[in-house]
Protein backbone atom coordinates (compact mmCIF):
# COMPACT_ATOMS: atom_id res chain seq x y z
CA UNK A 1 0.00 0.00 0.00
CA UNK A 2 2.81 2.44 0.86
CA UNK A 3 4.32 2.38 -2.65
CA UNK A 4 0.97 2.84 -4.38
CA UNK A 5 0.07 5.70 -2.07
CA UNK A 6 3.42 7.43 -2.62
CA UNK A 7 3.13 7.30 -6.41
CA UNK A 8 -0.37 8.73 -6.34
CA UNK A 9 0.67 11.49 -3.93
CA UNK A 10 3.58 12.44 -6.22
CA UNK A 11 1.19 12.78 -9.15
CA UNK A 12 -1.19 14.88 -7.06
CA UNK A 13 1.75 17.05 -6.02
CA UNK A 14 2.46 17.82 -9.68
CA UNK A 15 -1.23 18.67 -10.21
CA UNK A 16 -1.48 20.97 -7.19
CA UNK A 17 1.53 23.03 -8.26
CA UNK A 18 -0.01 23.70 -11.66
CA UNK A 19 -3.47 24.84 -10.57
CA UNK A 20 -5.00 28.18 -9.65
CA UNK A 21 -5.92 28.93 -6.02
CA UNK A 22 -9.08 26.93 -6.73
CA UNK A 23 -9.49 24.52 -9.63
CA UNK A 24 -12.10 22.01 -10.71
CA UNK A 25 -10.53 18.57 -11.16
CA UNK A 26 -12.38 16.48 -13.74
CA UNK A 27 -10.05 13.48 -13.87
CA UNK A 28 -7.38 11.84 -11.74
CA UNK A 29 -4.49 9.55 -12.64
CA UNK A 30 -5.46 5.95 -12.04
CA UNK A 31 -9.20 6.53 -12.48
CA UNK A 32 -10.81 5.55 -15.76
CA UNK A 33 -12.94 8.25 -17.31
CA UNK A 34 -14.23 11.51 -15.86
CA UNK A 35 -14.84 11.73 -12.13
CA UNK A 36 -18.48 10.94 -11.24
CA UNK A 37 -18.52 13.73 -8.65
CA UNK A 38 -17.48 17.39 -8.46
CA UNK A 39 -13.97 17.83 -7.02
CA UNK A 40 -12.32 21.17 -6.35
CA UNK A 41 -8.82 21.65 -4.97
CA UNK A 42 -7.09 24.82 -3.98
CA UNK A 43 -5.49 27.02 -1.35
CA UNK A 44 -6.93 29.48 1.15
CA UNK A 45 -4.52 32.00 2.68
CA UNK A 46 -4.78 32.67 6.41
CA UNK A 47 -2.91 35.05 8.70
CA UNK A 48 -2.41 38.82 8.50
CA UNK A 49 -0.59 38.61 5.17
CA UNK A 50 -2.11 35.25 4.21
CA UNK A 51 1.35 33.79 4.69
CA UNK A 52 -0.05 30.37 5.59
CA UNK A 53 -1.56 28.61 2.59
CA UNK A 54 -3.92 25.79 3.56
CA UNK A 55 -4.65 23.21 0.88
CA UNK A 56 -8.08 21.63 0.60
CA UNK A 57 -10.11 19.10 -1.36
CA UNK A 58 -13.78 20.00 -1.74
CA UNK A 59 -16.35 17.48 -2.94
CA UNK A 60 -19.94 18.51 -3.56
CA UNK A 61 -22.71 16.32 -2.23
CA UNK A 62 -23.73 13.76 -4.82
CA UNK A 63 -27.37 14.09 -3.72
CA UNK A 64 -28.50 17.69 -3.27
CA UNK A 65 -25.60 20.12 -2.70
CA UNK A 66 -27.95 23.11 -2.51
CA UNK A 67 -29.55 21.78 0.67
CA UNK A 68 -27.34 18.98 2.05
CA UNK A 69 -25.02 19.70 4.99
CA UNK A 70 -21.54 21.14 4.51
CA UNK A 71 -18.79 19.38 6.50
CA UNK A 72 -15.23 20.28 7.33
CA UNK A 73 -13.36 17.00 7.85
CA UNK A 74 -10.04 16.84 9.69
CA UNK A 75 -7.71 13.87 10.06
CA UNK A 76 -5.48 13.14 13.03
CA UNK A 77 -1.80 13.22 13.79
CA UNK A 78 -1.36 16.10 14.22
CA UNK A 79 0.15 16.21 10.76
CA UNK A 80 -1.79 13.55 8.81
CA UNK A 81 -2.77 14.58 5.31
CA UNK A 82 -6.47 14.94 4.59
CA UNK A 83 -5.83 12.58 1.69
CA UNK A 84 -6.17 9.85 4.31
CA UNK A 85 -9.79 10.81 4.85
CA UNK A 86 -10.43 11.25 1.15
CA UNK A 87 -8.98 7.89 0.03
CA UNK A 88 -9.10 5.68 3.10
CA UNK A 89 -11.98 6.71 5.35
CA UNK A 90 -15.11 8.36 4.01
CA UNK A 91 -14.38 9.76 0.55
CA UNK A 92 -15.76 8.75 -2.86
CA UNK A 93 -12.53 7.09 -4.06
CA UNK A 94 -10.24 4.36 -2.75
CA UNK A 95 -6.95 2.85 -3.89
CA UNK A 96 -7.33 -0.57 -5.46
CA UNK A 97 -4.61 -2.78 -4.02
CA UNK A 98 -5.70 -6.13 -5.46
CA UNK A 99 -3.49 -7.14 -8.36
CA UNK A 100 -1.19 -4.12 -8.05
CA UNK A 101 2.13 -4.78 -9.81
CA UNK A 102 3.76 -1.37 -10.00
CA UNK A 103 3.08 1.86 -11.83
CA UNK A 104 0.22 4.24 -11.15
CA UNK A 105 -2.25 2.69 -8.69
CA UNK A 106 -5.87 2.33 -9.76
CA UNK A 107 -8.62 4.32 -8.08
CA UNK A 108 -12.13 2.94 -7.69
CA UNK A 109 -15.39 4.48 -6.51
CA UNK A 110 -16.75 3.57 -3.09
CA UNK A 111 -20.29 2.81 -1.98
CA UNK A 112 -19.82 4.29 1.49
CA UNK A 113 -18.76 7.88 0.79
CA UNK A 114 -20.20 10.50 3.10
CA UNK A 115 -20.41 12.74 0.03
CA UNK A 116 -23.53 10.80 -0.95
CA UNK A 117 -25.41 12.88 1.64
CA UNK A 118 -23.12 15.86 2.37
CA UNK A 119 -20.56 18.18 0.83
CA UNK A 120 -17.11 17.83 2.41
CA UNK A 121 -14.06 20.08 2.69
CA UNK A 122 -10.94 18.06 3.54
CA UNK A 123 -8.24 20.41 4.88
CA UNK A 124 -4.50 19.76 5.15
CA UNK A 125 -3.82 21.24 8.59
CA UNK A 126 -1.88 22.35 10.53
CA UNK A 127 0.54 24.16 8.23
CA UNK A 128 3.17 21.87 6.63
CA UNK A 129 0.67 19.02 6.61
CA UNK A 130 0.11 17.50 3.17
CA UNK A 131 0.30 20.26 0.56
CA UNK A 132 -0.17 23.17 3.00
CA UNK A 133 2.80 25.49 3.47
CA UNK A 134 3.94 28.87 4.75
CA UNK A 135 5.42 31.59 2.55
CA UNK A 136 7.50 32.89 5.45
CA UNK A 137 9.14 31.32 8.52
CA UNK A 138 6.56 30.74 11.22
CA UNK A 139 6.66 33.07 14.23
CA UNK A 140 4.61 30.69 16.39
CA UNK A 141 4.54 26.90 16.46
CA UNK A 142 1.12 25.56 15.36
CA UNK A 143 -1.06 24.58 18.32
CA UNK A 144 -4.50 23.21 19.20
CA UNK A 145 -5.94 26.65 19.96
CA UNK A 146 -4.13 28.10 16.96
CA UNK A 147 -5.69 25.48 14.67
CA UNK A 148 -9.15 26.40 15.98
CA UNK A 149 -8.62 30.03 14.96
CA UNK A 150 -6.97 29.07 11.67
CA UNK A 151 -9.78 26.73 10.61
CA UNK A 152 -12.33 29.41 11.52
CA UNK A 153 -10.52 31.94 9.33
CA UNK A 154 -10.24 29.35 6.57
CA UNK A 155 -14.01 28.75 6.71
CA UNK A 156 -14.86 32.45 6.58
CA UNK A 157 -12.68 32.99 3.52
CA UNK A 158 -13.78 29.77 1.83
CA UNK A 159 -17.45 30.71 2.24
CA UNK A 160 -16.63 34.15 0.86
CA UNK A 161 -15.54 32.40 -2.33
CA UNK A 162 -18.46 29.90 -2.19
CA UNK A 163 -21.46 31.96 -1.04
CA UNK A 164 -23.92 29.32 -2.27
CA UNK A 165 -23.09 27.24 0.83
CA UNK A 166 -23.55 29.94 3.46
CA UNK A 167 -27.07 28.81 4.35
CA UNK A 168 -26.38 25.04 4.37
CA UNK A 169 -26.37 23.16 7.68
CA UNK A 170 -22.75 23.06 8.84
CA UNK A 171 -20.74 20.48 10.81
CA UNK A 172 -17.11 20.04 11.87
CA UNK A 173 -15.91 16.43 11.88
CA UNK A 174 -12.64 14.74 12.74
CA UNK A 175 -11.05 11.54 13.95
CA UNK A 176 -8.11 10.52 16.09
CA UNK A 177 -6.21 13.57 17.42
CA UNK A 178 -8.55 15.95 15.58
CA UNK A 179 -11.30 14.77 17.92
CA UNK A 180 -9.53 16.85 20.55
CA UNK A 181 -9.51 20.01 18.44
CA UNK A 182 -12.93 19.80 16.73
CA UNK A 183 -14.92 20.97 19.83
CA UNK A 184 -12.63 24.01 20.13
CA UNK A 185 -13.19 24.80 16.44
CA UNK A 186 -16.97 24.60 16.92
CA UNK A 187 -16.76 26.97 19.89
CA UNK A 188 -14.53 29.38 17.97
CA UNK A 189 -16.96 29.44 15.04
CA UNK A 190 -20.07 29.67 17.22
CA UNK A 191 -18.70 32.69 19.04
CA UNK A 192 -18.35 34.46 15.71
CA UNK A 193 -14.83 35.28 16.37
CA UNK A 194 -13.18 10.28 18.80
CA UNK A 195 -9.48 12.37 21.62
CA UNK A 196 -10.47 14.49 24.61
CA UNK A 197 -8.09 13.84 27.49
CA UNK A 198 -4.92 12.53 25.81
CA UNK A 199 -3.28 11.17 28.96
CA UNK A 200 -6.48 9.71 30.37
CA UNK A 201 -7.38 8.08 27.05
CA UNK A 202 -4.07 6.25 27.01
CA UNK A 203 -4.51 5.23 30.63
CA UNK A 204 -7.43 3.07 29.53
CA UNK A 205 -5.42 1.14 26.91
CA UNK A 206 -3.98 -1.53 29.19
CA UNK A 207 -7.29 -2.20 31.04
CA UNK A 208 -9.08 -2.33 27.69
CA UNK A 209 -6.56 -4.80 26.23
CA UNK A 210 -6.87 -6.92 29.36
CA UNK A 211 -10.66 -6.88 29.18
CA UNK A 212 -10.51 -7.95 25.52
CA UNK A 213 -8.28 -10.91 26.54
CA UNK A 214 -5.45 -9.52 24.40
CA UNK A 215 -2.98 -9.68 27.30
CA UNK A 216 -2.71 -12.13 30.16
CA UNK A 217 -3.53 -11.49 33.82
CA UNK A 218 0.18 -11.67 34.64
CA UNK A 219 1.16 -9.16 31.96
CA UNK A 220 -1.68 -6.86 32.99
CA UNK A 221 -0.59 -6.83 36.64
CA UNK A 222 3.02 -6.19 35.65
CA UNK A 223 2.28 -3.46 33.10
CA UNK A 224 -0.39 -1.35 34.71
CA UNK A 225 2.07 0.55 36.91
CA UNK A 226 4.64 1.06 34.12
CA UNK A 227 2.39 2.40 31.36
CA UNK A 228 3.64 5.67 29.78
CA UNK A 229 2.17 7.71 26.99
CA UNK A 230 4.37 7.93 23.84
CA UNK A 231 4.56 11.54 22.67
CA UNK A 232 4.86 12.38 18.98
CA UNK A 233 7.92 14.46 18.14
CA UNK A 234 6.54 17.05 15.73
CA UNK A 235 6.63 20.89 15.76
CA UNK A 236 3.21 21.29 17.32
CA UNK A 237 2.02 22.62 20.66
CA UNK A 238 -0.70 20.52 22.31
CA UNK A 239 -2.17 23.28 24.42
CA UNK A 240 -5.69 21.89 24.90
CA UNK A 241 -5.36 19.51 27.83
CA UNK A 242 -8.99 18.48 27.72
CA UNK A 243 -11.70 19.17 25.15
CA UNK A 244 -14.47 18.20 27.60
CA UNK A 245 -15.22 21.84 28.58
CA UNK A 246 -15.61 22.66 24.88
CA UNK A 247 -17.96 19.70 24.43
CA UNK A 248 -20.01 20.87 27.40
CA UNK A 249 -20.18 24.46 26.21
CA UNK A 250 -21.16 23.46 22.66
CA UNK A 251 -23.84 21.01 23.74
CA UNK A 252 -25.37 23.36 26.33
CA UNK A 253 -25.59 25.97 23.57
CA UNK A 254 -27.68 23.62 21.46
CA UNK A 255 -25.14 22.13 19.06
CA UNK A 256 -25.76 18.45 18.36
CA UNK A 257 -22.87 15.99 18.41
CA UNK A 258 -22.18 12.42 17.36
CA UNK A 259 -19.25 10.80 19.19
CA UNK A 260 -18.35 7.32 18.00
CA UNK A 261 -15.71 4.72 18.72
CA UNK A 262 -14.61 1.49 17.11
CA UNK A 263 -15.14 -1.16 19.78
CA UNK A 264 -11.66 -2.56 19.01
CA UNK A 265 -9.89 0.83 19.18
CA UNK A 266 -6.76 0.41 21.28
CA UNK A 267 -5.53 3.98 20.69
CA UNK A 268 -8.54 5.66 22.29
CA UNK A 269 -10.58 2.83 23.84
CA UNK A 270 -14.37 3.29 23.98
CA UNK A 271 -14.09 2.93 27.76
CA UNK A 272 -12.20 6.23 27.83
CA UNK A 273 -14.75 7.99 25.65
CA UNK A 274 -17.64 6.75 27.77
CA UNK A 275 -15.84 7.90 30.92
CA UNK A 276 -15.58 11.56 29.87
CA UNK A 277 -19.15 11.56 28.55
CA UNK A 278 -20.36 10.27 31.94
CA UNK A 279 -18.42 13.08 33.62
CA UNK A 280 -20.82 15.58 32.02
CA UNK A 281 -23.67 14.12 34.11
CA UNK A 282 -26.17 14.49 31.30
CA UNK A 283 -29.44 12.64 31.64
CA UNK A 284 -30.02 9.67 29.34
CA UNK A 285 -32.72 10.13 26.69
CA UNK A 286 -32.35 6.79 24.86
CA UNK A 287 -30.51 4.15 26.90
CA UNK A 288 -27.84 1.69 25.78
CA UNK A 289 -29.11 -0.46 22.93
CA UNK A 290 -27.82 -2.17 19.77
CA UNK A 291 -28.13 -0.42 16.44
CA UNK A 292 -28.76 -2.64 13.46
CA UNK A 293 -27.95 -3.06 9.78
CA UNK A 294 -29.95 -5.72 7.93
CA UNK A 295 -31.04 -7.26 11.25
CA UNK A 296 -27.41 -7.60 12.37
CA UNK A 297 -25.86 -5.76 15.32
CA UNK A 298 -23.55 -3.05 13.94
CA UNK A 299 -22.72 -1.51 17.30
CA UNK A 300 -24.31 0.04 20.38
CA UNK A 301 -25.57 3.53 21.06
CA UNK A 302 -26.88 5.81 23.78
CA UNK A 303 -28.40 9.28 23.45
CA UNK A 304 -27.99 11.95 26.11
CA UNK A 305 -29.62 15.28 26.85
CA UNK A 306 -28.27 18.33 25.02
CA UNK A 307 -28.33 16.50 21.67
CA UNK A 308 -25.28 14.31 22.37
CA UNK A 309 -25.15 10.81 20.88
CA UNK A 310 -22.52 8.15 21.54
CA UNK A 311 -22.19 5.08 19.34
CA UNK A 312 -19.80 2.18 18.89
CA UNK A 313 -19.02 0.44 15.61
CA UNK A 314 -18.75 -3.32 16.00
CA UNK A 315 -15.35 -4.58 14.85
CA UNK A 316 -14.17 -1.01 14.25
CA UNK A 317 -10.69 0.26 15.03
CA UNK A 318 -9.17 3.69 15.55
CA UNK A 319 -10.29 5.11 12.19
CA UNK A 320 -13.20 4.53 9.84
CA UNK A 321 -11.25 2.55 7.24
CA UNK A 322 -11.82 -0.56 9.38
CA UNK A 323 -15.61 -0.41 8.94
CA UNK A 324 -16.41 2.22 6.29
CA UNK A 325 -19.87 0.94 5.34
CA UNK A 326 -21.10 0.73 8.93
CA UNK A 327 -19.64 4.17 9.69
CA UNK A 328 -21.42 5.63 6.66
CA UNK A 329 -24.82 4.19 7.61
CA UNK A 330 -24.40 5.45 11.17
CA UNK A 331 -23.47 8.92 9.91
CA UNK A 332 -26.26 8.98 7.31
CA UNK A 333 -28.91 8.17 9.91
CA UNK A 334 -27.62 10.70 12.40
CA UNK A 335 -27.13 13.58 9.93
CA UNK A 336 -30.66 12.95 8.60
CA UNK A 337 -32.16 13.13 12.08
CA UNK A 338 -33.07 9.45 12.12
CA UNK A 339 -32.69 7.09 15.06
CA UNK A 340 -29.35 5.30 14.75
TrEMBL record:
<comment type="similarity">
    <text>Belongs to the peptidase S10 family.</text>
</comment>
<dbReference type="InterPro" id="IPR001563">
    <property type="entry name" value="Peptidase_S10"/>
</dbReference>
<dbReference type="GO" id="GO:0016747">
    <property type="term" value="F:acyltransferase activity, transferring groups other than amino-acyl groups"/>
</dbReference>
<protein>
    <submittedName>
        <fullName>Uncharacterized protein</fullName>
    </submittedName>
</protein>
<dbReference type="GO" id="GO:0019748">
    <property type="term" value="P:secondary metabolic process"/>
</dbReference>
<dbReference type="GO" id="GO:0006508">
    <property type="term" value="P:proteolysis"/>
</dbReference>
<dbReference type="GO" id="GO:0005576">
    <property type="term" value="C:extracellular region"/>
</dbReference>
<keyword id="KW-0732">Signal</keyword>
<dbReference type="GO" id="GO:0004185">
    <property type="term" value="F:serine-type carboxypeptidase activity"/>
</dbReference>
<dbReference type="Pfam" id="PF00450">
    <property type="entry name" value="Peptidase_S10"/>
</dbReference>
<feature type="signal peptide">
    <location>
        <begin position="1"/>
        <end position="21"/>
    </location>
</feature>
<dbReference type="InterPro" id="IPR029058">
    <property type="entry name" value="AB_hydrolase_fold"/>
</dbReference>
